[in-house]
Amino acid sequence: MARIALFYDADCGFCQASVDWLVKRSLPGTFEVIAYQDEKRMHRYPMVDRTLADKGIQALGEDGKLWKKASATGFCLRYLPGWEWLGSLILFPLVQPFAALGYALVARNRQAISRWMGLNACRVPGAKQG
Fold it and tell me: Three-state SS for 4?
């Protein structure tokens, strides 16, 4: 079983690319990546607010704590070799408001960012493990 269940929007190219980047750099067994659109797998996680799918990622730790948006990003980065420092920085109380603001700006414009980067959306959600 993965240490972190990571929930993302599979209908967003930027989101897909971000999750791919994260999984590629993680140790095996760290993440179970689940698309909000995957009805069967989402059914196992009633604590995850699917209405936030268009606003950001959510990450569920082994301890049952649910992280959202910028905090979820920081939490996940703490599990990536070589990126722990950035995760801790994002979660640092004095930095968190700025990280949340930056995250909100990117989330609000993610479809445009996807187009600018030439990233395709609507990939069929598959079971990614990392």
Answer: strand
